[in-house]
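Much of what follows relies on a compact textual record of a protein's fold. With that in mind, consider the following protein and its fold in token form.
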Amino acid sequence: MSLKYTCPSCGTPLGYEGLCWKCKCEQERKTALAWTPEQIAENQRNLIQNIQRLGDMEDPESTDFWQLLSYRDAITPEIQRAALTAEVFWPCEIYYRAPADVRDGLIAALLKTENAHEAANLMCCLAFQGDDKAMETLLELERNPRPWRKSLYVDPSIYAQCGGWTFDKEGHRTQINFDTCYPMVKGEPGEATPVRIGRVREDTCPHCGCQMVDILVLDGRDERLKFLGLDGILTATCCLNCVGFLKGPAFNSFTLDGGAEVFPSELFDGAEKMDCYVRLEDYKVLTENPFVLGKAPVPMFYGSACEDVNTVGGFANWVQDAEYTTCPHCDKPMKYLAQIQWDTLMDGTEGTLYIEFCPDCQIVSMQHQQT
């Protein structure tokens, strides 16, 4: 069936008149990035005055919140205090690095509640606040669980991961995300970049026979990427055909000279061989994608509220729950590195690939989520 319309910005065939969803997202982001200080202040005032509507996920408050947070890093203590007063504990990101008085209010609410759902939200709120007292509270609740813990699936240390950190039973804190974020932007043909998405390899997947792909090649020696602490090249390798079907992460080891060795997946043991559904033209489109590393850092949540942005560092846009991987060698939590939105690379695909790594063991994990 031929589509009647095309996107006026990029020419994508559409079944309706107007912008395609990618161009619409980009337009909305550019609008938010162009807000004047007066417009930012007005949106902040509206959010404070109508904070309960944010909790109910109503617009324009919900959209304004995510744009203020993601693109302008402009969630103020006044907004956080208004949310606490109104007992708005969702979205939890509203409490990111909130001041001590707000943190104490969250702790008081958490220790008072008898409701498991509210407790879960409050633990996520404290995770995003993230200071030492927040960790002490979650650690105490892990050591001495409240009755509502029986109704939850995981411990407080897992809820802490929402905020990009966690802790062990001895109370040692581990940071599992980076406090710097760079976007992948559309570059010029042939433009040099220290981060490359999509490079076809010669070897094939042992389960389906498709060609393997270096889905991310990242040179940590670039000045912009010094925050990663990688004195060399990290290569993340996977099978495009299989990575979305795994009931867990795909792994590979990497060497700083750019080498990669894929781990055989136990998740396919005993399963029937899959067919290869990746076409030659899919590989061509993937490897010809225009993305290069942006020239300047962006707010930490830049890629966390949209489906058309690929990022390195910062926070992810988890389609489901935040799901950090444990290193298969040292059993420590791996560090979140990057997200790749499949449909920014190839039409007809969906979901997001989340890439993490263990800097000590030089192991990469890749896991896919979608609705």
